[in-house]
Fold this protein.
Amino acid sequence: MTTTDLATIDHLLTTTRAVRKRLDLSRPVPREVVLDCIRLANQAPTGTNAQTWRWIVVTDPDVRSALGTLYRDRPPQREGPNPAPVVEDTPGNRRMLESTQYLTDHIHEVPVLVVPCAQEVGGAAGWQPSIYPAVWSFMLALRSRGLGSCLTTSHLYRKDEAAELLGVPAGFAQACLVPVAYFTGDDFRPADRRPAEEVTYWDHWGKTDL
């Protein structure tokens, strides 16, 4: 692999952002573009080569509107053993929360909503790990074609109603919802992240030195 190849791939991997606010809500997304990205996503590894993934691509305005209502109107959250993490009050997090609210308000206007589904099967880790590499591949393929997306799960608070709306049969689970649109503005930059040395442990939890 040449240096140029690595530079292109590294740029794609480090600049595929969760795009919520810079989605072009007025520009249609061709069906073939979505299918091309799903073809690439289907090349992701799948446990035992089962290929149990299904992709529901929602473009009908009425269905998008109904799905958007489920996305926004989440039920009251009960206290539990795993409460939601507290988001630090930083400029970056304030921008993130603002963009999250923007997407919530406009989710029904996004031209394409994709709901990846997987068959609910057994195994040590269940069905979830099998489909998420494909979802990420889908998002990378979109990014390489000038489209933005993000992995969202808010509609799963009403997953039963969403399943009825979308006709998802018993035995299949909705993994997430991926809004898809061309992005506006310039290119994206790598995000601020903790150094790899700080978050990588060697042989034992907390052991960061070699």
